[in-house]
What does this fold into?
Amino acid sequence: MASSSQKSTQYFPGLRKVIRQFWPQVYQEKTLLSVAIVGLVIEVFARLLSPWPLKLIFDYVLLPNAHNADLDIPFLRDAAPGVLILILTLSIIGVAALSAMSAYISLVSLSIAASRIISDIRSQLYGHLQRLSLAFHYQAKSGDLLTRITSDIDRLRDVIVNHALPLLINLFTLVSMVGVMFWMDWELALIALAVLPIFMVSSLSITQRIRTVAQRQRRRESAMAATAAESIGAIKVVQALSLEGVLEQMFTHDNRKSQEESARTQQFSAGLKRTAEILVAVATALVLWRGVYLVQLGKASPGDLIVFITYLKTAFKPTRELAKQMAKISRGIVSAERIIDVLNVEPEVRNTKGAISAPSFHGAIQFENVSFAYHDHQTTLQNLSFEVKPGQRVALVGPSGSGKSTLVSLLLRLYDPDSGCISIDGQDLRQYRLDSLRNQMSIVLQDSILFGTSIRDNIAYGALGATDAEVKRAAKLANAHEFIMALPDGYKTLMSERGVTLSGGQRQRIAIARAAIRKAPIVILDEPTVGLDNKSEQAVIQALKRLTRDSTTLLITHDLSVSKDFDQILYIEAGQLLEQGTHEELMQRGQHYAALYQLQSAVCTNHVPPLPTLTP
It folds into this structure.
């Protein structure tokens, strides 16, 4: 078994790491925390005083000749027994009231401070997650991140209020009472503390085991959350593929293992608690054995023995709860470390040093020898170069997976290129602050995401602070005003998650309205009409034409009948720009684009032959 020093070096660095990470939030609540500490000191002082009235009753009332000469108090010695009993009994109530009041003040102050600290940490964590790069979010599991934001944060608060404060009080009480015991009789104090090293060794050893099991348990709980989030988010696919049983089995397995690990921590905690009880009993027996002998010799008074026994019960009582508190704190440290792990992740894309707010763009875009690869090191874009003039409409075409969506992600600075330069109006994108750059771009995706708020707010998210008149004007531009007004609550209609209660065309037109209200000089369209019926497609196309008027437009599409009217067409395949020009120019060349266009035209004009009749 590892030594106690090895165990402590494994335990306390985690605690120091947590304190160092969250010290700014703690320092902000220094006033409330100072009040809590003062209350803690007064409570411990009251605990120290609590057995003394009983000692004085024994030494000055019941056995008036037995008190220690070193503690001879003339007032107590000369006072009438009735008056003395009244004073001492009232002092018992006074000490208890002082202890209760100080404990209340300390707990309330710490609770308020902890709530504020935890609220700040949760907001910091959520804001940090919002700013982490797409590469992080594509690799992380959403259920695990939600667990860190919710239950890990809640567990941290529970530890601070319900376990850290009692632990501090108990440790402070133990140290104070040990000091008083040494002041009263060093020999009895040494006997009382003889079992303490044994307890410390066993507690540190078992606490480290609890922490290890707690880490495994949190990973299990995160896996359960991830499984639940994925299955619920894709419930249609789950039911269509009859995957309910498979996913339930995965969830049940993690759930069962988590419960086993929880039971294991309870087992460790219970074992340490029982050990503490036995050691306290041994210490009490030794003190009684030696204390009675000293009283008989006249070297100690019966009251002294009562104080020692009371202190033993009071000071070592925390050792019985120490296992529970340290187990909870160990699990809290695990949760805090999981939060810190996320907070310490640096966004791959962030404002560069000296970044400035972008001026109003004209819309000139230039890619110069741009190359990019995702983390799997498979090159997505290779040495890509092209220019787009202000107000031009450019179509990006080519096979799926050729890098078209990656190209516009680089323009939005969702990623940074591995090499090369992307500029707008002649300036490198990295010179601008991210928010000022992205605020001048509007984007409409193939699967437009709506948030679980009102239609009005969903549109206004495109330009925070937009008026109702601006929202309605954008909705009319997007051919959305009529169907919105036909809804029961109009613009106040609340959306379900992702807006699934609306049709695809309706969702897309709200997304176009959200893009239109921004009035951005650059518009990005990523397959905005895919999956729509003819009527919805025509309504969306009309809205897109109005949206892109006078704006530099980049359209990702597989429908070449749409791209042929654009000012410029870029044919991209395997991450390379193979062709560039107008529809007529590319058709004259008769290469990749022309072949794909002819293939699509043939599919659209020819009738598909009927299936042959099967004969028995």
